[in-house]
Amino acid sequence: MTDAATVYLGIGSNRDRERHILAALNALSERYELTGVSSVFESESVGFEGSLFYNMVVGIRTGESVATLSRFLKGLEIDNGHQPGMPKFSPRTLDLDILTYDDRIGVIDGVELPRGEILTNAFVLWPLAEIAPDEQHPLDGRTYRELWAAYGRDQKLWPIALRWQGRAISPRPGTS
Fold first, then answer.
1. Among candidate residues 120, 127, 68, 117, the one with its CA nearest the CA of residue 97
2. In this structure, how many other beta carbons lie within 10 angstroms of the beta carbon of residue 65?
3. How far apart are CA 118 and CA 138, in angstroms?
4. Minimal CA–CA distance to 100: which of 152, 62, 72?
5. Which domains does the chain have, with CATH numbers?
6. For residues 107 and 61, what is the distance between their CA atoms, to the nearest angstrom?
7. How remote is the C-alpha of 98 from its chain's centroid?
8. C-alpha to C-alpha distance for 68 and 77, rounded to whole angstroms
């Protein structure tokens, strides 16, 4: 691939949350150009009983294929204590998901694009709407701002204060 793609990644952790979120940001910023960093949101577990999660979304530019990016993210999860083969709905040190890869649609290199939870989980949609409000969902066609404004599910989350590389990244103005 010669042209760089715009990719949005979901980052989540509910075990030693701040350490793992910051480790992910450090690793991603060393390898990719970051185009956006959302606020960090604390939320209740979805799909299982567990401790509260920290979640956020980052935008990157990469010339890597979906497969190469996915391999790097899985390796980063493992480097941060993620146990491969754990149930989908379970506590985790670090969870990294490719949400969108440009406007690609379908299962590419084993990755569902766009990721379905964009439309169902507030902890993905709110931070995505924060850093890419005017971009359109590849399937739905509405902007992330429009999707967030229409979001009607009852999921509790709130922005929390977090510093990265000596500066406040969270919360961003207008997130509360």
1. 117
2. 14
3. 11
4. 62
5. 5-162 (3.30.70.560)
6. 20
7. 7
8. 14
Token pair 């919360």 is at which residue? 171
| Residue 175: closest CA among 131, 140, 112, 120 | 131
Say if strands 106-108 and 53-62 run parallel, antiparallel, or are unpaired: unpaired
Rounded Cα distance between 142 and 134, Å, is 9
Of 1-5, 78-82, 172-176, the range with the lowest mean pLDDT is 172-176
Distance CA 121, CA 77 (A): 21
User: What's the CA dihedral at 140, 143, 149, 152 to 10 degrees?
Assistant: 20
Comparing CA positions, the residue from 95, 100, 128 lying closest to residue 114 is: 100
Q: Is the pLDDT of residue 82 over 80?
A: no
Residue 117 is classified by DSSP as G
Q: What is the pLDDT of residues 86-125, one digit of tens each?
A: 666 667 889 999 999 999 999 999 999 999 999 999 999 9
